[in-house]
Write a structure and sequence with these properties.
Pathway: Protein modification; protein ubiquitination. One of its GO terms (cellular component) is peroxisomal membrane. One of its GO terms (biological process) is protein import into peroxisome matrix. Helix 3 runs antiparallel to helix 6. The chain has eleven helices and five strands, in the order αααααβαααβααββαβ. The strands form two sheets. Strands 4-3-5 form a three-stranded antiparallel β-sheet. The chain is mainly alpha-helical.
């Protein structure tokens, strides 16, 4: 019992906590956010264990299960180390301000139990208050019972306590922003505050990495703005025409290089042409492909040869029937 109330042993590899060093407000608030995120993560992992069971199985006892998980976290974090998980990640630890010593003092057993009660209790009461009021006949919209005077008075007292608690939390937070201590009303009531676990060292900030990240971030935003303005289809067509000479002769006839291959695939989708149409060059397109692309791009060019797309005309093929048995 004496070791619990005495000074906490210094951590390995450094000196002990210094209660005289002020803790940044942002560090204390970040610790609260990390603890809240951890509570939600633990609950999500726990509820996933019952995802294959009957839906709504955990709903009747959900507040009690959340309180039990929070008590388990408290048992393995605050109780032995006087620090929550979020505080450990932010290099913080609770200090007993009720002690007259100038050195660091760990939380007493009463303070640890009070921290668990004032942290878990209000959350459970908030989630369970509706069902408790219904069990007492104090639900909203219900007709008052025979002895409604006492119950109505109890309901008003509960509402008054809730309102006063919210006002007290708001005032405490404003005082915290002014003085930088006790971000929660629970810490102020119990006489505890956060201190650094290890002495803070002077940071040697190198801005080369930050400048490089800012440069790449600005370049990425510039590309996001620029790329929609670039006609990538026209660039692709130009490159294609430079690498592969035109295969269309005079009069729009297909050259020897492409031959009959242009009749077997659409110049836009690459599939067998459906309702084949031509647009002024020797290439064939699906009717719906050329129409949809023409609506999207008023200056559409053929992706094969670079010719500007004109009026789509249906392809007329002449089929010559020959007698295979003729000699």
């Amino acid at each position: 019992m004496a070791s619990t109330r005495g000074a906490h042993p210094p951590p390995e590899g450094g000196s002990g906590p210094d209660p005289q060093t002020p803790v940044l407000r942002i560090n204390q608030l970040d610790a609260f956010e990390l603890d809240s995120a951890l509570d939600q993560l633990v609950w999500n992992q726990f509820s996933q264990c019952f995802q294959h069971f009957r839906p709504g199985l955990l709903t009747p006892v959900e507040p009690e299960l959340k309180a039990l998980l929070q008590l388990l976290l408290w048992r393995f974090t605050v109780y032995p180390n006087s620090a929550t998980v979020g505080q450990s990640m932010m290099n913080l630890r609770y200090h007993n301000t009720l002690s007259l010593s100038q050195c660091y003092r760990a939380l007493s057993r009463r303070q640890r139990l009070g921290l668990a009660l004032l942290t878990v209790g209000p959350r459970w009461l908030t989630e369970r208050s509706h069902s408790l009021l219904l069990s007492l006949g104090l639900g909203l919209g219900g007709s008052p019972p025979a002895d409604g005077g006492l119950r109505l008075g109890l309901r008003r007292v509960l509402s008054l306590i809730t309102g006063l608690t919210q006002v007290a939390n708001l005032i405490n937070f404003l005082v915290f922003l002014r003085k930088g201590r006790h971000p929660s009303l629970t810490e102020r009531i119990l006489g505890i505050r956060a201190v650094f676990t290890k002495p803070q060292t002077v940071r040697d900030a190198a801005f080369q990495y930050m400048n490089r990240e800012l440069l790449w971030h600005g370049f990425a935003e510039f590309l996001i703005f620029l790329l929609p303005l670039v006609n990538m289809r026209k660039i692709k067509t130009t490159m294609y025409s430079l690498l592969y000479p035109l295969g269309v002769g005079e009069g729009g006839e297909v050259g020897v290089r492409e031959g009959s291959a242009v009749w077997k695939e659409c110049g836009l989708c690459g599939e067998w042409p459906t309702m084949p149409h031509m647009v002024g060059c020797g290439h064939v397109f699906c009717y719906y492909c050329v129409k949809s692309h023409s609506i999207a791009d008023a200056y559409l060019t053929c992706p094969k040869c670079g010719v500007e797309v004109g009026e789509a005309k249906a392809v007329k093929l002449q089929i010559e029937m020959t007698d295979v048995h003729a000699r």
